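ok so dumb question maybe but i'm new to this and my supervisor (M.) told me to 'just get the structure for Transposase' and walked off. so i did the thing. is this what she meant?? sequence i used:
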Amino acid sequence: MTDKSKKSKTLRQLQKENELLRIRVAYLEKLEALAQKKSQTKKKPS
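this is what came out, is it supposed to look like this??
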């Protein structure tokens, strides 16, 4: 086995990593939206 083939990821590993990254991005986008909503409600006095 060459170094290149040892380091290269299989398609299955890449698909799993891609799925996890998509989940993280979705989570962070929701978190950011909540933070923006919270900061907007703080600016407006009730």
